[in-house]
Design a protein that fits this description.
The chain has eight helices and no strands. By secondary structure, the chain is mostly helical. It has a single domain, classed as TerB-like (Orthogonal Bundle). The longest helix has 17 residues. The protein is globular. It comes from Maritimibacter fusiformis. This is TerB family tellurite resistance protein.
Amino acid sequence: MFESLFSTLFATDPEPLDDGDARLALTALLVRIARSDHDYASVEINEIEQIVAARYHLSQAEATELRHAAEAFEAEAPDTVRFTRAIKDAVPYDQRLRVVESAWSVVLADGARADEENALMRLVANLLGIEDRDSNIARQKAARS
């Protein structure tokens, strides 16, 4: 089911992700961040579904289906470095910045910022090529939402 995306993630010179793989990868990244504190709360799940529904113009059922696929993919996905590299190569800076803002929304959804989530967000923003200042602004925007 995930063969093309896995082959992209493991390629030494990966091809850009197609739209379906990009959706799955971005959603799986949100799942990975939500799971990083070992408390995958329903409020985080709902936030992920709201984000992908709005971003990709999906119905609630389609957003839930994408989240389920992303959960399965994330459980099998390689390390975060490879994962984010594929996203970075496929997504322009301004859209990656929106990904970071969405990720902060997931982190903040349960009202607590665990150390594991903070550490993963620093790593993910860095690996996506997002400057610290821009990540901080994205976090502030997510907090106001």
